[in-house]
Structures are given as C-alpha cells and as structure tokens.
Amino acid sequence: MGFSLGDFNLSLAIRFLSMDMVENAKSGHPGMPMGMADVATVLYKYFLKFNPQAPDWADRDRFILSAGHGSALLYSLLYLTGYEDIDINQLKSFRKLGSKTAGHPEYHLAKGIETSTGPLGQGLANGVGMALAERMLNAEFGDELVNHKTYIIVSDGCLAEGISQEAISIAGHLRLKNLIILFDDNGITIDGPINLSTSDNHLKRFEASNWNVKQIDGHDYNQIRQALEVAQTSDKPMFIACKTKIGFGSPTKEGKSSAHGSPLGREEIVKIREKFNWQSPPFVIPKEILNEWRSIAARNLDEYNRWNKEFNNSNKKDKLKSYLSGEIPLSFKQGSESLKRKLCIEANTDEPSRKSSERIVELMAEHIENIRGGSADLTPSNNTKARNQNPITPGDYSGRYIHYGIREHAMAAMMNGIVLHGGFIPYGGTFLAFSDYCRPAIRLSALMALRVIYVMTHDSIGLGEDGPTHQPVEHLAALRAIPNLLVFRPCDVIETLECWDIALNQQGTPSVLALSRQNLPQLRKEYFKENHSALGAYIIKKEEKELKVTIFASGSEVSLALVVAEKLEEAGSGARVISVPCMDLFKMQDKEYQVSLTCNNSLKVAIEAGVEQGWERLIGAHGIFIGMESFGESGTASELFKYFGFDPENIFKKITPYLKK
Amino acid sequence: MGFSLGDFNLSLAIRFLSMDMVENAKSGHPGMPMGMADVATVLYKYFLKFNPQAPDWADRDRFILSAGHGSALLYSLLYLTGYEDIDINQLKSFRKLGSKTAGHPEYHLAKGIETSTGPLGQGLANGVGMALAERMLNAEFGDELVNHKTYIIVSDGCLAEGISQEAISIAGHLRLKNLIILFDDNGITIDGPINLSTSDNHLKRFEASNWNVKQIDGHDYNQIRQALEVAQTSDKPMFIACKTKIGFGSPTKEGKSSAHGSPLGREEIVKIREKFNWQSPPFVIPKEILNEWRSIAARNLDEYNRWNKEFNNSNKKDKLKSYLSGEIPLSFKQGSESLKRKLCIEANTDEPSRKSSERIVELMAEHIENIRGGSADLTPSNNTKARNQNPITPGDYSGRYIHYGIREHAMAAMMNGIVLHGGFIPYGGTFLAFSDYCRPAIRLSALMALRVIYVMTHDSIGLGEDGPTHQPVEHLAALRAIPNLLVFRPCDVIETLECWDIALNQQGTPSVLALSRQNLPQLRKEYFKENHSALGAYIIKKEEKELKVTIFASGSEVSLALVVAEKLEEAGSGARVISVPCMDLFKMQDKEYQVSLTCNNSLKVAIEAGVEQGWERLIGAHGIFIGMESFGESGTASELFKYFGFDPENIFKKITPYLKK
C-alpha cells in the first residue's frame, strides 16, 4: 500500500474510536470515518495549520466535515490532537443529550467545530464562503497576517445536492486557490451503490468550473500526500477525489451500504480488532499512538508564534481586531441617527422601502469597512450596491461587493461561511419569493446564531406583473416560523432605518428585511431617538374617539390601515393603528407591554398582504384578517391590491357590521 | 448568415410581437424572445410535434420555456401557430390582470403552456420529469403510442441554479434520449455580463453528466437545424448551446443587460422596424407570414391521424385512457377499506407511521399500475418502496421505483413534471426537515394544482440522535402556510391509511404526509367506514366528566394528549381530545362544524412537537400551547420529548393552575 506503519497506526486510532463511539451510542455512522481515516491522518499530520491550544487563531486553516454524518471522524480528530472541549468522556457520550458530541457536528458546542453540518452540501458552500472571506481578509491585511487554507471533506451526497454546483461554480469563477475539497469517493449511498442514481464524472465536472482536479487512492498515503502537496500551490481551487472503501477494514461490511448508518456490531468489531492486531480495549488508544497524535500540533507552533509576533507588531493590529470583533463603528451609528433626524424633519420621503434600504447601504459602505454586500443577480432590483462598492473579481478580492450570480442557495450558505470565518458582516439580496431557494441555509444561519442579513425585496403582490411565481404570499409566515430569525417588514423609510439598525446590532441572530418594490409614503414624521421598531409592534396612531377598533399591520399595509382608521374615526369609531415591523421582537417583549397592545375590548383587525398564519396571536381566533388566501396574479400592483381586497372601502365594509353588534 | 428569407420573416414575426407586447404592457422581457426567435422558429417549423387543434394530444412533443421571463416568446408562438386560447387580444393584454398571458407562463391559464415557469431551473427539472414520464409510458405502451420529445429552452439563470445540476445529473444517468435542452447562451444576466459571476464551461459540464453536446450560432438557421437533426437520434439527452444576442436586432440594446427586463422604447422599436423593413403596425403580422406560421402545424397532421387510428385500434386503449385519467382503481379502494377494517379488528398495530405508510405503498404497488414511487436516497428510512417495485434503470423504464439520488429539489420538480406530462401518480420521500430543500418545487405543485404526494418521514424531534439539523421544528407550520397544499400528520396506523386515501383522491392538490420515525400506538380501534381524517380535526376522545379542557394534538402527540386527558379526568376535570391530522382540511369544513370543535368554555390546549404558529386559530390567543420554541437537540427520542416538556406530568402541571381559576 505504500504507507509508513506510523501513519497507518494513527489512522487506526481514528477508525477504532469511531467504531467504538457508534457502538457505544448504539447509533451513528461508522463507515465514513473508517473510509476517510487515512486522508484525515495525512491532512492533520502534514498539512493542516491548527493549534488546539488556540482554536480561535484567526489564521488557522479551516477544516470542514461537510459530510456531517461522519461526525465521529471529526470528534476523533479533535480528541486525538488535544482539543480541550472534546475529551474521552465526550467520545463516550457521543449522540447523547447534553454532550458536545452530537449526532452531527454542531458549531456552538465545541471549539474545533467550524460549522454545523449534516444537511448535505451546506458545509461545502460554507467552505467556499470561508475561502472567500480568507481572500478578502488577505486583500486587506496581507500574506503575513492572513494566508490559510480551507479544507472540506465532501460525500457523494454533498456533490449530488444542487447547492454544491452553485458553490463549485462560484469558487472556480473567483479562483479561490486556497480552497481544497477532499471527496470521499466511496461509491455508496443509503439506497445502495451510487450507480443506482448517479453516473457523473466529477473530475470533469469540476474542471468545467475551473478547478484543478486529481484522483487518488484514498488509502494510499503517498498519493494522498502528493495530492495535498500539489494543492498547496494550486492556482485554482483544487478537487481531490479520493477512492475509498466505506467501512474500511470491516470484513463483512466494507464497501457496502450496511457500513453507512448503523453500528457494525460487537462481533464485527472484534474481527476488525483481530485483523489489525489492535489490542487495546474500546476508547483506549495505545500510549505511543496517542502521543504521536498529540505531538502533531507542535508542527504549527513556530508558525503560530510567528503570526502572533507579526500581529502584535502590526500597524494593522487594531483594524484587524475591530474586523474580527464584528462591532459596528460609532461613526455609522451617528450617521444613521442623523439621517433619521433629517428625514423626520423633511418628512416627505415617499419611496419604496428597497430604496430606503439603499440609503443605509450607502451609509454602511461609507462607515463600516468590513461590510460586504451582494445579490443573487438582482442588484438593480434589490438596491444592494452602494456607489463606492467595487465588485470582487477573480484574483482581486479588494472589492466590497459580491456578484453571487443566480445562486441564492450558495449565497446564503456562503454568507454563513463568511460569518463563521470571522472578519466580515455580510448582507445579500434576492426576491422574497426566492427565500425558498435558500431556506435550508437561512435555517442554518438561525441554528448557528450568525449575523447574516438577508435583503429580500419585492415582498408581496405589490411586485406586480411578474405574477404568482414571483409574489410571496406564504413567505413571511414561513420565515417567522424559524426560531432565532428576525423577520422585519418596515412600513416606511424611518422604520427601514430602524430595522437595519437592529439587524446590524444582533450578533447572534440573522435577519430578513422584507422590502417593497412599490412606493411607500413616509408615515413616521416625528423624530424619536428611541428605536420604536425594536419593540416589534407599537402604536403608530392613537385613537381619537373612544376605542372601537385596533388595526395591526405591517409594511406596505400600514398606510392602508391608517386610511381605514381615518374612515372609522369619521364614522364615529375610535381606531388605533399598530405597526408591526417585527412580530418576532414583539413576542420577546415583556408580557405587560404585549398585553397593553393586544388586550382590550376593541375589535381586532390585522392587514398584511400574506397568509393569516401567525396573526391570530395578535387578533385572537375571532379577529378579522385582511390578507391572502391564495396565490397572487399577474397585474399592476394597484390593481392587485384592489382585486385581493386591500382597499379602504372593502376593509371598512368588512369591519362595520361587527361594530354594530 | 445562411438562412432562407422565409424562416427569417417567421422569426421576425416573433420578434415584433414580443417587442409590441412588452411595449404595450409597459413592462416585461423583450431581450430573450428576440434572441431565441430563430431557434424557436426552426424548432416549430421543422421538428416540434404538436397540434394546436388538439393541444392535449398525449403523444405531442413537450415544449418548455424554462426561462419563463421570456414568456412573450411562448405567447407569440402559440398565437402564430393558432392555439385557440391565445388570440391577438391576449397578446395585447399581456401582463394584465385576468389575461391568459401573465407575466410568466402560468400552466392553468392556457392550453399550450405545459408548465408554470419563472422560478429559474424549475422548468428544466419539470422537463426531466416529463421526459422520464415519456419513457415510462413508452415502456408500457410501446413506440406506436408513446414516442415524443421534450424540448426545453433554458437561460444562464436556469443553469446557475443548483436544481439544474440535480436534474442534469439524473437525466444523464437515466439516459433520457428524448430530452433536448436549448441553451440561450446570450452571455448576459441582470447584473451585467455573465462573467461578473460565472465562467463555467457548460458543454463540458453536461458531458460530465453523460449528455451529448453541441455548440451552435443561435442565429444561423442551418446550424440550428443540423443540431436539432442530430438530436432526433441521440442516444443520450442532448444539450445544444445556442450563442445568441439578447435583444437581437436592437440597434442600441442588442447584447446588453438593458434589453433584458424593460421595454425597448418606442423610438428604438421604430429603428428596428426600419432596419428590418417591417412595415406593418404593432400586433399586425403580414398575411403571408401569418399564413405560413399557421400552416406549420399541418406538418404533423398525418402523424396525429396515424396516432389516433393506432390508439383507437389498440388493445391497450382502455389501459392508456385509465392511466391518463389518473383515477384510482376500485380494487385499491376496496383493498384499503378491508385493510382498515382488519386493523381495527386486530386493534394492536403499534408501529411508526412511516411503517404504516409502507402498508399503503404495498397496496398501491399491487393495485395501482400507474403509481411511481421514489425517494431522495432515503428508501429504507422513508419506507417508500414496495417489495414488487423494481427500480427504473438507465435505458430500462419498465420499473416502478425511482432512485432519485440525493436530489430532493429535482425529485419534487420532476414529480411536478411527471404529473404535468400525464399518465402517472408520483410519490417521493425524504426527511421532513429536508422539505426545505425542495420547497420551491412544492410551492409549484400547489400553484399548479398537481397531485404530487410527498412522503416526509422523521417528522419531529422524535427523529432522535441525528440532532437539530435533521429535526423539523418549523416545517409543519411553514408547509401549512402554502396555499392549496394538504399537510397531513396522522396519529396512528388508521389515520395514516385515511390520510393516504385523501391524498390519492385529490387530483388538484398536492399533499405532504408527515410521518414518524418512532413507534405510535394504535389509537383508532373502532371501525368506521367514514374517513374521519377528511374532517381535518375530529373528536377522538369525548369527555367523561363535565368538560373543562379541550386538547388538540396531531401525530405522535395525540397519544400523549390522551394520557393527559385521562389524568385530568382522574383529577375531576372532563377532558376532550381532538385529533388534528390535517389543519388545512379543518379550515375547509363548514363554519358550524369548526365552531362545534373550537367554541366552548373549556380551557384550550394544543400539543404538537413543532412551533406554535397556526395553532392559535384553534386555541385562541390565550390557550396553552405545548410545543417547540427552539431548535431540537441530539439525544434519544424519549429523552428529547421529556427534555422539551412533552410528558404528561409536565403538561398536567401546566394545565391545572388554569382550572382552579
């Protein structure tokens, strides 16, 4: 086979730990760690730049297990190389409630886990985001402070998912030379051999997207080492297809689906122990092998010390620190505040909220050096690009705007990767209807608690003639259903400012800004320093007569609610209007405040050009909801609003019968 | 250029109609129709098998405009070739409310529109589904009755979206030789030239997935014709990259982004008319050109007549009719009914609902010849494959099970295509958490009103150790938010039978069956012929003492609700339990029935291992909801249910304080 006994023993340590973990947990995936143990050993022993004592070292290489079901591989590596978070007891608690060693790697549980993986293809696209972040940071701080690789282990499943193509395509286009994919080419999926469903030539596929490629025997240490050696100086991202045997070493399950997702069984493990003459009991690694694993990290100590010296002596130290802290500079806050004041004084800024958002984009581009904008090829529609933002181009990463192409899913997952990498605050645009295209990655922004800002314009039937496929109807509800995600739908320029401000200051929560295509009149004309939108919902118009009706509304429907309220007042019924720019934030307010808005004897009405789901919380089961019950239609915005019942006459008529009762 | 003046004039007719439509509508996309007019002309004139007088002809070629924004191209073609639905007035009503000529092609609006397109990449994947349906139907009925092509026009955007790779990959694998993609390779996207974001070699990419490929000048009639000629006898699916100029013929906008998505302007159009010496006014096609267009369809009359004769004389006529009707055979209904009776008598079938679902799968495979199952590589987990279902393999389409591979998005969009094509009833499985991966296509199942059945197992934290990335929490709510989609979550084997029965009988509505990984006790033991689940919600346990509490629950939480109710009864409070297998169906019941379940003075409680959103409709704003507020965790199912508060003690304790009040 052409390997040193030393390396083989190191990889056996991974194999036996992984087998033992799965066996002990009585569930899990042993086949992949056993198949990729050799590749992982060579990567860690000879190439990976890491320091278990300083797991947050900014210039470390990133290692991502995109095939997250093989988590035992990652946990074994973290234990063997000496990461504090993952001790032997953690390996014994694999997949148990409360452990750091969850079924799939969870970012927030332990240092050394660079991203949460499991939903296939996400880790790959996260890695592309990290590799881009590395290049962008390098462009600002130079080779001495930023120059590291991103290694990703991917499975057949990762490469089958569509997101992989989006990520591969943009990585090749942007020539991310510090990105290396190691493909666990084991020819096996859950249903059986890969040829049940696939006959792609992945080498050719990656070449078609401008990658360097190489195919190797994933159990041949020399080939692995040579390939990784070549990758160190590649001028493009590099794809290494490693032919492996799933469940390598298992006498009856090697190379079979049965090695994938279940414990091998005690008997089988006994046989493997015999085969490799592995004498030590479960979870015990022979001392000399463990020592060799532990000594590997020392290889990087010189580099780690050099980097620290460089960092401490650098005149860019403070800037880099500030980039990594992710804090919003005071100058932006001041700029934003004075813009708010100015707009309130002028009190005549009627414009689409996507246009209002562009004002903040300009302000951010001016004051927040480490903000990176982008759009999935809807830049002129999303209004996401500031005048002074130059695009990132292949080989030149000093720009501050990313043309993600028509790749919503990769955009979202790359933004996750950019935040995970550290150094930048990303925002990216598409149409709200296409939030569906990137929903799996939005969910991961929320699950990993990452400040990713989604700028989603054309937020209702107000999109107009493009019709039902492009008109979001259920998307606000569907996004609000995701835990730890803030969904904003501002009603005018002032709320748009406020919502952006909140989103930027949420370091542990992603945000969606749902913005209008069509014009919105400025409703907030009195200046308050306090951010009213931060309450999630607030009274935007008090009743003049005795309170009879409370109308809740968001976004473009708030101005409509105000017209209806006026009609009601004219007809003798006091009407209050509550603007709801963020339902999620309202739910987080103290009970007293919530009750003060929702509990009174007035008739409750809600207006939103979307489905009802979620509004019952505010209006109760018997309130009146004015919204959408079907998909939209193709027509002008104003026709559509009327057609679907969003006109003051219609709403007034729906309300009045209840007032007579 | 090498074209006959005749063909050029035909294509000018498309160009001028498209320009006039967009100009008249004051919005829309002229560039693409102008760029692809030559390709479309050659396709329709020399190759496409169609009959405007019989637009539903089962053996017609399918033509899909995946780049749906270029809808003016399709509408022009339908008008020019004489489809009744699209007359000149429809072209003049382009993008207007109530017209058949919506901003993007909408399937339900006019014959000749084979699928709703616009969300990029979907049409491509629909087409792969249609091409597979064609081969599957051919396997059953032979070349004489079924032998047609599927042509798809795709854009750069279609090919950038991840779904395209999934679809291309499986189409190449399955060797769908009757599938032809025509790529509008115009080098332009909304943000600008394609090289802002992409540098893929698409020819190589398609070759890597086993397609035949050809690159041509999309304005050279000979090259177009030769390429399509080659495609007629291709042994693989064929990709033809047509180099075109967006906005072909426009003196100042040809080849530019500005031709993409806005009217060209009157002045520009005047110049184009002069350039091509086009004398007739807007919307008027010179008689001889219109006549030539109208005569094109006659080319297919012989074939159409031959087919009809063949069909009428065929001993398979009734079988084909039955396939196309999509009706469920009586024998299945009887089998299903007697299974229900048997299980009720035995009254001891405790099993996961995915296992219960497998019983129906077996029954369907036995009785419904034209059902086609599949899974996105989770066959053994989704329990979607019957024993007698052989897989479809490359070149042999007589099997009845589709290994979709790890391609949820393509699976869903292909199932849409299979239904659109006609002849089959498709169902396909994945984990409920990965409904996000195919959500854009699920939305289109609903928008197009297609009977696609999604079998989504592992429907809650009950999935266990695989952890939060795999545990659906918000997915039930998010799916329920989609209009015209039935989301089922049966509580036991009997409800599973009932829900499947409803799903199969909904010809105009897709369904999601959310099924458990873990065991569910049989709760329904008394046999009723009526399908209780069809009510959406119904009383599964009446109160014994005076009614104090009404508990709503779905799926695995119904048995828990019953235990809680028993405890309440023991403590002196009458408790009613309402099983809610389908919230959407409950909303459709008459008001009286709805009120009978939700309006009484008892305390309202709902239990579901998901987010609250949607349940407020049943329990009001002040009911008690027992559910999830965060993402899940990795651990055993039983530990997790306890950890997140789904145990009778905890729920009982939450309820009792309210009863004392």
Automatic annotation (TrEMBL), chains A, B:
Residues annotated to bind substrate: 29, 260, 354, 381, 458, 466, 470, 517
Pfam families in the record: Transket_pyr (PF02779), Transketolase_C_1 (PF22613), Transketolase_N (PF00456)
Active site annotation, chain numbering: 408
Domain Transketolase-like pyrimidine-binding: start-end pairs: 351-522
Keywords assigned by UniProt, alphabetized: Calcium, Magnesium, Metal-binding, Thiamine pyrophosphate, Transferase
Note describing how the cofactor binds: Binds 1 Mg(2+) ion per subunit. Can also utilize other divalent metal cations, such as Ca(2+), Mn(2+) and Co(2+). Binds 1 thiamine pyrophosphate per subunit. During the reaction, the substrate forms a covalent intermediate with the cofactor.
GO terms, molecular function: metal ion binding; transketolase activity
One GO location term (cellular component): cytosol
Domain of life of the source: Bacteria
Catalytic reactions on record: D-sedoheptulose 7-phosphate + D-glyceraldehyde 3-phosphate = aldehydo-D-ribose 5-phosphate + D-xylulose 5-phosphate
Binding site for thiamine diphosphate: 69, 118-120, 157, 186, 260, 434
EC number of the protein: 2.2.1.1
Binding site for Mg(2+): 156, 186, 188
InterPro entries in the record: THDP-binding, Transketo_C/PFOR_II, Transketolase-like_C_2, Transketolase-like_Pyr-bd, Transketolase_bac-like, Transketolase_BS, Transketolase_CS, Transketolase_fam
Single Gene Ontology BP annotation: pentose-phosphate shunt
UniProt site positions, description: Important for catalytic activity: 29, 260
UniProt entry tagged with the keyword Ligase: no
Cofactors required: Mg(2+); thiamine diphosphate; Ca(2+); Mn(2+)
Family named by the database record: Belongs to the transketolase family.
Quaternary state and interactors: Homodimer.
Role summary: Catalyzes the transfer of a two-carbon ketol group from a ketose donor to an aldose acceptor, via a covalent intermediate with the cofactor thiamine pyrophosphate.
NCBIfam families: tktlase_bact
Name the UniProt record assigns to this protein: Transketolase
Organism whose genome encodes this protein: Candidatus Jidaibacter acanthamoebae
Organism phylogeny: Bacteria, Pseudomonadati, Pseudomonadota, Alphaproteobacteria, Rickettsiales
Gene: cbbT_2
